[in-house]
Structure formats: structure tokens, C-alpha cells
Fold:
Amino acid sequence: MAGLMSLDTRRCNYFFLYDGSKVRGEGDPTREGICYFYPEETPLDKQDLLCGQLAGVARCVSELSSSPVRTLKLRRCKFAVRMMADFFWALGCSMDVPTVSVCELLDHLIDLFCFYNGSVRQSYQLNSKESLAAQWAQYLSHMQSGPSELCYIFRCLRTIDSTNVDPLLLLKAALILQACQRCPLVLVGCILFRGRVVSTQMSPQLTMKVMVHESEIYTKTQKSNEASTSSSLGGAVSSTAVFLTTSELQYLQSAPVNKDLGSQSTPHKDDPPKKTRLSRTLSDTPSTESETSCPASLQPPQKLRFSPHVSESDDSLFSPASSQSADSPNPSPQPLRRLLSNGRNSNQTEEEVHEEESYRAGFQNKEDEDRQMDSQGDGSVFEETPCVNGGAGDGDAARGTAFDYRGADSGNEHSRDDRKAAGDSGVCCRKAKGHRAGTRHPPPLTFDSLEESPLIPMTLYMHRVNGLVLALLVEPRLTSDSASMEEVYHSSLASLNGLEAHLRAAPPGAPGASGQYVFAHYDSIQSTLKTNVSGRSGGATDHPFVRATSLLHSHFCDTETLQEAIIRNVSAAMYGTRSVAQETYFQQQGSLSRNWGIPSQQDSAFSLPSKARHRLLKHGVNLL
Amino acid sequence: MAAKKSTLKVILLGDGGVGKSSLMNRYVTNKFDAHLFHTIGVEFLNKELTVDGCKVTLQIWDTAGQERFRSLRTPFYRGSDCCLLTFSVDDNQSFLNLNNWKKEFIYYADIKEPEKFPFVVLGNKVDVTERQVSLEDARQWCQENGDYPYYETSAKDATNVAVAFEEAVHRVLAMDDKTDYLIPTDTVKLHRKPRSANICCS
Structure:
């Protein structure tokens, strides 16, 4: 394990956050601007040098090219770079790690910080550098704690091994989450067991963020920087403040089926009687329907267009990164598209028209809000769908929330501005395509608008039963509402106890490594990775596989038309294939001793694809 | 006698829909929810009780009644101290199935002396007006099968629920007391521990 750790730390060499606003004049020392530097034991002079040089180069290049710099490559280290307002982040990894992945990792780090601390500027105004340094260190260590080196290449959720678990238990977990949602203050949730996802209602990105806190409290139970409510419900329940971006919130608020109708449900006043209701049952139907006026909402089929064309895209070059990582900073209210955008939508223009349409719709809503208050109950088709689909009137809760935070926030002006910002960045997406060389990654404005896009305070509620954790994103007022707290607690307690007992009793998975082959199968939509690379059994044997995977992954990202590839050296050959949403890598162990030079007809490398198809079937990976 | 702390495992068995989950919820949280989904596998809640000066944690295990969940629930029968056989008075079939439930329990819980094991029988849903199982029939079955105590309950309006669970506790404690008489009271009771260990491992 120690060997592995050292390997890991070598892969992520540097990380820093530099605040340019602290260094304005000639005489200002660079170190004034260094908010956090990893490794923390780096000599200050070296910190100065690296921060000063990288920030300088990045600024210079971005001004010359009038496009933001996303990566800087040195000889032995590559840096992903993010600039936002006066802040400058850089994450340096070894050259082995694909560039897309380094960028993703950095985005993920920043997202994590914003999720738990809110806006970066504000955090540094309110807290000491030291306490925030601890946060960065925690996120970094979490990021590096993946089970194998593959976690540097693919941002993935660790899920329970579903082949070992009765599918009924997954259903049970999903039902627990639904039962919690009967309390309108509960937005969404996920259930984790021993640091792995059992069931989640959140996007993979949001789930990953939630898991950081879970693993933190799991490992260091004593450490309590956050307000933990050890109420009558016992020490098993805790809560902490978190921050969602508008797009995340919209995604959560939209109905399970028509996720991308989110923008319509935002500004809406909840009627008081609704708010006071503590629970909903499956048979309840929301009594208030409105917002029928917006034209965009009348075309759900078109909105659900995340389908087949995703693959041949020129965005796919960028997107595995952007789509997976950019979730929070991007205020565009098209979460679904982002989620699934492992590629471009070929009907891009249509999409954008739509996007704009829905913004407008949003505006109208906002402006017509009061009027709509009166016209409630005209029963739109849409608002009913959530109930039909067992969503138990999600829309309701959503609208309640929307009103709440808008109310609490500065109000209408604010949200209107957002929307404008979002719209603008949409426009820039299009332009950004021209800058492929410089920007491999998401549209430049995403991060510029990060600061402007308001982060909405929410609360992360956690209920732990031994190794099992129920994590819910709830409205902050839930924690002060003891009746609702008890309702949520009691509605789930027995089932959580039971689920925990079941999962604990489940036999541990059979050791995956069969010795004959190594594989990795990544699903970019669900952000899941299936692999038999254990990482533990002295990662050295798997290292060539990881390197080859890294190489092919980069190629897949860079070459949109590339679907299959075999790479080979004297001792090993690897087959890689990708589809719209998945990438699969397969390497046969054992000698290929006679394979060198120009491949002959008999070269065993050519049999890899069929072997992969055959072997991986039993892992549930279908390459046919 | 010093207050001893122990956990009693009580398990609710019976056909799907007879109200096992509702009984548990009514007893532990005093709430009733008409819209509960089928229980999948098993669930449990703890309730602290003080009986005759003894602190007892009553662990009530609720199980899935449907046949398709059988393989999920049966591993958790082991280590039960008492079994509550439950049927619904408005469903004759659920009453007829009591025998099967008893057999299933004895088999999977690996009960060595079934005739001595404390069963309690609950006829739930007495609030419903159309009964299919008469009080006499139920009593007769209990009489014939080992003189089990019988309670007519309603989780909906809380009739007899607490009484029934308390009876279960008394039955178990009475069993324990019998064995206690055989051993000096201040000795350490060893037999409880391994049992709970079994639960973890099964």
C-alpha cells in the first residue's frame, strides 16, 4: 500500500490557488497571493517561483490569444489551469495522466470547494487561510484516495458491486429515498454503504461531492467543524451546510422524467398551505399547477433529445472533460445535456434556440409570477407527470425551494441577472469552438461566471447506521423544523436498519483478478468504472495497463472518429473501444513474445477484440 | 437484582399485507401510515423498555410477507427470542397460512425445541368490519398449536398493540427466568452473547 501511495502522490505533484488581487504593485511579494499550495512542505521560494511563473505565463498567453489557457505543459509535469476573476488555480500531474483528466480533476477540486464552502472569494473573506487550507488538503487527499491509478484517468463513482447484491435491495434503497421525499423539504438523496453508492437520485457529479463529506465523517468522527445536530434523533444524524449552483438546483427540482424542464420550475411562489404540509403520499397530486404559459414547456419530446447523435461531435473532443466536471460552475440550465454530452448534439443550433427560449420562458415566469399565483390550478400536463411517475409531486417541493431561496436572496434582480449570464455563456459556447487548440475544455466563460452565478445554500443531512449512510440534500429550514426532521428520520430508520443488515450479510465479492486479462470499462453517463485492476495487489503489474489506458483514453478524447484501437509493444497488447457513452479497455496477460515489428496476419493482437467481447460478457460488459 | 441490559429479538411473520410493518411502527413510533410500500427483505426498530426493573432493548424485526422475498428474509430468523405470528382478521387465507409461517420459522431459525419456543399470535385489522376469521377460530388454533397467547390488534387505531408486544417480552423473560432459577443469579449469562454474534454473521 505504501508503494501505491507514493505512486499516487507522484501523479499529483502540485496544486495551488493564487489570488492575484493580493499582488498588485511591483513590490508586493508573490507569496501574499498564495492562498494554498500543495505539497504544503514546498519551500516558499519554490512556491513563489511556480505561482509567479505559471500565473504570468497563463495570463500572457491568454491575453495574446484572447482565449483562456486551460493547460500548460512542462517537461515532466502538466498543469491544468483555471482562472476566475483574480483567482488562479493550477493542478500539476505527471505526464502519464491524460490532459483531459487533469483538467477534470482540477474542475472537480474547485467544485468540491464551492460545494462545501460557497463562493471562493467570500470564503477567503470569512475564513482564515489555514482553515481553508485544511479543506483543500482534504479534497486533494480524497481525490487521491481512489482504489487504483485508474481513478486519475476517469472520474468515477464507486458503486457497490451489484453482482453480489440482490437487486431487490437496490430497489429497497431507491424506495427509502423516495419515502424521504415525501417530506417536501427533502430534495434528493443517495444511500452509501462503506463508501460506495448503493442508490442515488443525484447526478453522478453531485453524488461524488456528497461522498467526500461522508468519507470524512466516516474516517474522522471526532472532528466536528460543522454544526452537527445531535438532537433527540441521536448522534447518528448530522447535517452540514452545502452550496448548489443554480443549474444543479434546477436539475434537482425538475421532475425525474423531464429533468431538463428545470428552467421552468424555478421562480414560483409557493402557496402557504402547501408549505405547511409535512408530508405527501404517493396518491397525492399537486393541486397547484401553473406556468402553462411558457411555450418551451409544451415540447417535452424535443427537450428530451439527449439521444443517439451524441457521438459524432466535435465537442466530444472536449466533452468527456467538460461534461463530467463542469457541472457546478456552469450556470446553463441544461443539466441534462451537460450530463450526457459526451459529445455534441448535432442539432446544436436547434438546441440553442431552445435554450434561449427557455430562458425567455424563465423570464416570463419571473415577471408573471404574481399573475400566475392567481391562475393556479389550470392543470398543465407537465406538472402532472411527476406524480404519474411516482415522483410524488416533486415539482411541489421544487417550487417551494425555488421560492425560498429567491426570497432569501437578493430577489428578482439577481435571478434575472443570472439568467442573462447563463444566456451569454451559451452564446460563447458557440464561439469557443474556434479555439480548439488552446481550449480543450469547457467553454471559457464557465469559470468567469462562477463568481457571478449565485450559490444557493442547502443542507446536507446525513443519517448513519453503521456502514450505511443516508445522505439527503434538504432545504436549510428542515434542520430547524423538528417535526419534519422526525418525520424524515422515522420514515427511513427501520428500512435503513434492515438494508444495513442485508448489505452487511452479503458475501464479499469474489476477487476479480483472474490473472488472464485486465480490463476497465467506463460509463461516462453514470460515471462508473468496472475493472479488475485492484490497485492493491502491488499495482506494479497493472501499471502498464493503466499507462496504455491513459494513452488510449487521450486518443479517444482527441480523435472523435476513433472508435477502436489496438496498441502493442513487444510484451503486451491492448484493445480499446468506445461508444457514445462508454469506453472499454482490455489487455490479455501472458506472453506475446513473437509479436514484434510489423503485425502479421497471425499476430495475436488481432484476436483481442473477440477475446474482449467474450471475456467481458461475464462482467456484464457487452461489446457486441 | 441489578438492572441487566439485554437485547430481545422479536420477529414479526405473516402473509404480505396483514400489517406487520404497521404494527411495528405503531408500537415504536406510535404512528400509522396507510401508504406503506411492501417491505423488502427485513427491517427493524429498537425500543427501550424497563420490565420488572430490567432494562431491555426490544429489537423488533419486520419481515416481507410476499413469497418472492423469502430468500431475503429467512437468513434473519436466527437468534429470535420470540416470534409474532401475524394474520389479518379480514383475510382467511392469511390465517390458514399461520401453520406455514410457523414451520418456516422453526426451520430457518433452527429452533431445537419448537414446543417450548415462545410464539404469540396476532390477529390484526380488527378495526375492519367484515371479518373472515372469528375470534373463536383463532383462539382454537392457538389452543391446538401449543397454547399460544392470542391478541386481536389494530395498528390503525392502536388497539392492543402495546399489550401484544409486552406479552412477547414477558414470555421471553419468563423463559429466561426459568433457566435463571437453575443457575445462581449473579453469574454472568453467557448464552445471550453468542446468539447476537450469530445474527451478525448469518
Residues 193-202 of chain B have pLDDT under 50 and may be disordered. Chain B has one domain: 7-182.
